[in-house]
Design brief:
disordered C terminus; alpha/beta; 8 helices; five-stranded parallel beta sheet; Rossmann fold; single chain
Length: 208
Protein backbone atom coordinates (compact mmCIF):
# COMPACT_ATOMS: atom_id res chain seq x y z
CA UNK A 1 0.00 0.00 0.00
CA UNK A 2 1.20 3.51 -0.89
CA UNK A 3 0.24 6.80 0.70
CA UNK A 4 1.43 9.60 -1.58
CA UNK A 5 1.94 13.23 -0.69
CA UNK A 6 0.27 14.26 -3.96
CA UNK A 7 1.45 17.77 -4.85
CA UNK A 8 4.84 17.13 -3.28
CA UNK A 9 5.30 14.16 -5.60
CA UNK A 10 3.97 16.03 -8.67
CA UNK A 11 6.30 19.01 -8.22
CA UNK A 12 9.31 16.76 -7.57
CA UNK A 13 8.52 14.69 -10.66
CA UNK A 14 8.17 17.72 -12.93
CA UNK A 15 11.51 19.03 -11.62
CA UNK A 16 13.23 15.94 -13.03
CA UNK A 17 12.74 17.43 -16.51
CA UNK A 18 13.02 15.51 -19.77
CA UNK A 19 10.26 12.94 -20.07
CA UNK A 20 8.78 14.24 -16.81
CA UNK A 21 8.15 17.78 -18.03
CA UNK A 22 4.57 18.76 -17.27
CA UNK A 23 4.13 15.90 -14.80
CA UNK A 24 0.60 16.17 -13.45
CA UNK A 25 -1.82 14.50 -11.08
CA UNK A 26 -3.56 12.81 -14.01
CA UNK A 27 -0.29 11.36 -15.28
CA UNK A 28 0.66 10.19 -11.79
CA UNK A 29 -2.70 8.45 -11.42
CA UNK A 30 -2.40 6.92 -14.88
CA UNK A 31 1.01 5.41 -14.07
CA UNK A 32 -0.26 4.10 -10.76
CA UNK A 33 -3.25 2.48 -12.42
CA UNK A 34 -1.15 0.90 -15.17
CA UNK A 35 0.97 -0.72 -12.46
CA UNK A 36 -2.13 -1.72 -10.50
CA UNK A 37 -0.71 0.00 -7.45
CA UNK A 38 -2.85 0.17 -4.33
CA UNK A 39 -2.50 3.83 -3.44
CA UNK A 40 -4.03 6.70 -1.52
CA UNK A 41 -3.10 10.09 -2.98
CA UNK A 42 -3.50 12.91 -0.47
CA UNK A 43 -3.70 16.49 -1.77
CA UNK A 44 -3.90 19.91 -0.15
CA UNK A 45 -7.07 21.99 -0.36
CA UNK A 46 -9.98 21.26 -2.65
CA UNK A 47 -10.20 19.64 -6.11
CA UNK A 48 -9.29 21.82 -9.09
CA UNK A 49 -11.41 21.75 -12.29
CA UNK A 50 -8.47 20.42 -14.34
CA UNK A 51 -7.82 17.49 -12.02
CA UNK A 52 -9.31 14.00 -12.37
CA UNK A 53 -12.23 12.95 -10.24
CA UNK A 54 -12.64 9.66 -8.43
CA UNK A 55 -14.56 8.08 -11.35
CA UNK A 56 -11.64 8.50 -13.76
CA UNK A 57 -9.33 6.25 -11.74
CA UNK A 58 -11.60 3.95 -9.71
CA UNK A 59 -8.69 1.80 -8.56
CA UNK A 60 -7.15 4.71 -6.63
CA UNK A 61 -8.25 6.79 -3.65
CA UNK A 62 -7.92 10.58 -3.96
CA UNK A 63 -8.29 12.52 -0.72
CA UNK A 64 -8.28 16.33 -0.53
CA UNK A 65 -7.44 17.78 2.85
CA UNK A 66 -9.96 20.61 2.56
CA UNK A 67 -9.62 24.30 3.26
CA UNK A 68 -7.12 25.18 5.99
CA UNK A 69 -5.95 21.60 6.60
CA UNK A 70 -2.53 20.34 5.51
CA UNK A 71 -2.11 17.12 3.56
CA UNK A 72 0.70 16.22 5.99
CA UNK A 73 -1.79 16.04 8.87
CA UNK A 74 -4.19 13.92 6.83
CA UNK A 75 -1.41 11.47 5.96
CA UNK A 76 -0.45 11.14 9.62
CA UNK A 77 -4.07 10.55 10.63
CA UNK A 78 -4.59 7.91 7.92
CA UNK A 79 -1.48 6.07 9.13
CA UNK A 80 -2.60 6.16 12.75
CA UNK A 81 -5.87 4.46 11.82
CA UNK A 82 -4.23 1.62 9.90
CA UNK A 83 -3.26 -1.70 11.45
CA UNK A 84 -1.01 -2.69 8.51
CA UNK A 85 1.48 0.18 8.85
CA UNK A 86 4.47 -2.12 8.37
CA UNK A 87 3.22 -2.78 4.83
CA UNK A 88 2.69 0.89 3.96
CA UNK A 89 5.16 3.19 2.19
CA UNK A 90 4.72 6.94 2.40
CA UNK A 91 5.97 8.88 -0.63
CA UNK A 92 7.06 12.40 0.30
CA UNK A 93 10.07 14.72 0.26
CA UNK A 94 8.81 16.43 3.38
CA UNK A 95 11.19 15.41 6.17
CA UNK A 96 8.52 15.78 8.84
CA UNK A 97 6.13 13.51 6.92
CA UNK A 98 8.85 10.89 6.34
CA UNK A 99 9.90 11.01 10.01
CA UNK A 100 6.31 10.61 11.18
CA UNK A 101 5.86 7.62 8.87
CA UNK A 102 8.91 5.90 10.32
CA UNK A 103 7.78 6.73 13.85
CA UNK A 104 4.53 4.92 13.12
CA UNK A 105 6.48 1.89 11.84
CA UNK A 106 5.73 2.58 8.17
CA UNK A 107 8.28 2.99 5.36
CA UNK A 108 9.16 6.19 3.51
CA UNK A 109 10.61 6.94 0.09
CA UNK A 110 11.61 10.10 -1.74
CA UNK A 111 9.41 11.38 -4.53
CA UNK A 112 12.20 11.36 -7.14
CA UNK A 113 13.11 7.73 -6.46
CA UNK A 114 9.47 6.71 -6.55
CA UNK A 115 8.66 8.54 -9.80
CA UNK A 116 11.71 7.14 -11.60
CA UNK A 117 10.92 3.62 -10.43
CA UNK A 118 7.28 3.97 -11.43
CA UNK A 119 8.30 5.13 -14.91
CA UNK A 120 10.80 2.28 -15.31
CA UNK A 121 8.26 -0.36 -14.27
CA UNK A 122 5.66 1.05 -16.65
CA UNK A 123 8.12 1.07 -19.58
CA UNK A 124 9.19 -2.51 -18.86
CA UNK A 125 5.57 -3.62 -18.70
CA UNK A 126 4.75 -1.99 -22.03
CA UNK A 127 7.81 -3.56 -23.65
CA UNK A 128 6.81 -6.99 -22.38
CA UNK A 129 3.22 -6.61 -23.54
CA UNK A 130 4.36 -5.52 -27.01
CA UNK A 131 6.95 -8.26 -27.37
CA UNK A 132 6.64 -10.26 -30.61
CA UNK A 133 7.62 -13.90 -30.42
CA UNK A 134 10.06 -15.15 -33.08
CA UNK A 135 8.46 -16.80 -36.10
CA UNK A 136 10.45 -19.99 -35.52
CA UNK A 137 8.66 -20.56 -32.19
CA UNK A 138 5.31 -21.09 -33.90
CA UNK A 139 6.37 -22.10 -37.44
CA UNK A 140 9.52 -24.14 -36.91
CA UNK A 141 12.94 -23.55 -38.44
CA UNK A 142 13.18 -21.28 -41.46
CA UNK A 143 14.35 -23.84 -44.05
CA UNK A 144 15.42 -27.47 -44.54
CA UNK A 145 19.09 -26.45 -44.36
CA UNK A 146 18.65 -25.26 -40.80
CA UNK A 147 16.80 -28.44 -39.92
CA UNK A 148 19.67 -30.58 -41.27
CA UNK A 149 22.23 -28.47 -39.41
CA UNK A 150 20.57 -28.96 -36.05
CA UNK A 151 19.93 -32.65 -36.64
CA UNK A 152 23.67 -33.10 -37.24
CA UNK A 153 24.49 -30.90 -34.26
CA UNK A 154 22.57 -33.19 -31.92
CA UNK A 155 23.50 -36.41 -33.70
CA UNK A 156 19.96 -37.20 -34.78
CA UNK A 157 19.37 -39.13 -38.01
CA UNK A 158 16.89 -37.67 -40.45
CA UNK A 159 16.56 -40.99 -42.36
CA UNK A 160 13.13 -42.51 -42.07
CA UNK A 161 12.08 -46.08 -43.10
CA UNK A 162 10.95 -46.16 -46.72
CA UNK A 163 8.35 -48.90 -46.12
CA UNK A 164 6.43 -49.86 -43.06
CA UNK A 165 5.82 -53.58 -42.28
CA UNK A 166 2.57 -54.95 -43.66
CA UNK A 167 -0.23 -55.76 -41.27
CA UNK A 168 0.30 -59.52 -41.86
CA UNK A 169 4.09 -59.37 -41.64
CA UNK A 170 6.55 -59.85 -38.80
CA UNK A 171 6.54 -56.61 -36.80
CA UNK A 172 10.20 -57.08 -35.83
CA UNK A 173 11.75 -58.03 -39.21
CA UNK A 174 9.19 -56.87 -41.75
CA UNK A 175 9.11 -60.37 -43.33
CA UNK A 176 5.82 -61.59 -44.76
CA UNK A 177 3.94 -64.29 -42.92
CA UNK A 178 4.35 -67.77 -44.54
CA UNK A 179 1.68 -68.83 -47.03
CA UNK A 180 0.14 -72.30 -46.38
CA UNK A 181 1.44 -74.95 -48.84
CA UNK A 182 -0.84 -76.87 -51.17
CA UNK A 183 -2.32 -79.92 -49.53
CA UNK A 184 -2.09 -78.66 -46.01
CA UNK A 185 -5.81 -78.13 -45.96
CA UNK A 186 -6.34 -81.73 -47.13
CA UNK A 187 -4.18 -83.09 -44.30
CA UNK A 188 -6.16 -81.16 -41.76
CA UNK A 189 -9.35 -82.57 -43.27
CA UNK A 190 -7.92 -86.12 -43.25
CA UNK A 191 -7.11 -85.84 -39.56
CA UNK A 192 -10.68 -84.83 -38.94
CA UNK A 193 -11.90 -88.09 -40.53
CA UNK A 194 -13.02 -86.65 -43.84
CA UNK A 195 -10.91 -87.57 -46.93
CA UNK A 196 -9.72 -84.72 -49.08
CA UNK A 197 -12.16 -84.16 -51.89
CA UNK A 198 -15.06 -85.89 -50.15
CA UNK A 199 -18.45 -84.33 -50.24
CA UNK A 200 -20.99 -83.52 -52.92
CA UNK A 201 -19.53 -82.93 -56.39
CA UNK A 202 -21.08 -81.52 -59.47
CA UNK A 203 -20.15 -81.77 -63.10
CA UNK A 204 -19.21 -84.68 -65.44
CA UNK A 205 -16.96 -86.43 -62.94
CA UNK A 206 -19.95 -87.06 -60.72
CA UNK A 207 -21.87 -88.95 -63.42
CA UNK A 208 -20.65 -92.59 -63.28
Amino acid sequence: MLIIDGYNCIFAGAALGGRWDGFSLRRLCSLLEQNRAAAIVVLDGRPKPSEPDADEFPGLTLIYSGQGIKADDVISKILSQRTDRRHITVISNDRAVAADARRQKAHSESCEKFVRGLGARTAAKRKWQGRVEPREKSQGLANPGETEHWLKEFGVSQTLPTRLPSASGDSATGRKAPVPRAGSTGRRQARSGKPFGSGTKTGPAAQV
